Every structure is written in C-alpha cells, then in structure tokens.
Amino acid sequence: MSDYKLVEDKLDVPKSTGVEGFVHTIREILKLPRVQSVNIDSKGRINYKRYILEGEQHDLAVDFEGLQPWAIVRNSDVEEITADSYNAAIILVALLDCAARDNLHPIAFVLGANSNFWNWYTATTGFAVTSKTNICGLPIYNDRHLPDSVLVLCAGFTAKSALIDTQKAYKVEMSILAPQTQVEVF
User: Fold this and answer.
1) Which domains does the chain have, with CATH numbers?
2) Residue-wise pLDDT tens digits, 17-42
3) Neighbouring C-beta atoms of residue 116, cutoff 10 Å
4) By three-state DSSP, how is residue 43 classified?
5) Using the 8-state DSSP alphabet, how is residue 82 labeled?
C-alpha cells in the first residue's frame, strides 16, 4: 500500500436532521472506496478514516437539504389551519385533533429558529412552557427557513415514525393579538 495515504476526515451532522441525518451521512461515507473506520461522537460529529491514492480527492460533501425539517414539511401534504380561538392550548389540541381525524399519529412540531411559540403560549394562556425540546411530549425541530410566527405539527402513519416519514403537516399562524371586539366612539 505504498501508493496509498491514510487520511482522516470529519463531518458535522446538523441536529435538525435527527437519526436520519446520521444514517444518510454514514451511507455516503460507505460509498467511498477504502474506508477503514467510522466513529460517531456525542456532539454529532462523524470521523472516518480511509486510504486514498496520491492526488485523489478526499473531501466529502454530504447534502442534508432533503432531510432538513422545512424540506420535509414542504414535501408533505400541508393543511393550513385557521383557528377559531387565539388560545394556544386550544390551537395545540386542534392540531392534534386534525391528525387524529386523518388517522395519522403526531410525530413532532417544527418551529422557526427564533420561534415566537413560548411568548405566544404564555400571552394567550397565562402559563409559561419551560421545555425547549418538547411540546405535549413531542420533539421540537427548529429550522431557520420557517417563519418564527408559524407552528407546524408533522404526522405520519405510525406513532414511532421519524420526521422523514411525515405524511401530512398541519400549519397554523401563531397570533398573540386577540380580535378587536370593542369599538371606540369619539
């Protein structure tokens, strides 16, 4: 193996891609010739070693675009929900009910990167949700491509589905402002 050189490279898997991001990355690495080892650390980084020939390209670019939450939502059937209430708790139940109506199971919520969800929930219910990782026991995925005023519930055929298995998404616009019910007379 005198013409070969052992190189080590690393790739960071975006957190928003979940387990599917790791599986996709490992598949791409294993397509490369002469891979010797693959290591995954707890921070979402994959290190791999392989032998390359002199002058052979050794950088690997993995495309995560199709695994990002916004791409999954965009590629699913999206139903826009117009809420009769401004109360966030009622709207959350309405989203979950829409999934049940369609015989689907809730998978996760998708929010913008700097989502208004926590302010919206507190302002409309008087209760402050403290968890930044779960809503109603479902994981939260953040994506900078989604507006911060949008809440999306992703649903699939089984309760243990991954985000990539989303069949239908239910989208609602989070509004803190209550409808005007009073008229001011001069």
Assistant:
1) 4-66 (3.30.70), 69-173 (3.30.2320)
2) 778 888 888 999 999 989 999 999 87
3) 18
4) coil
5) -
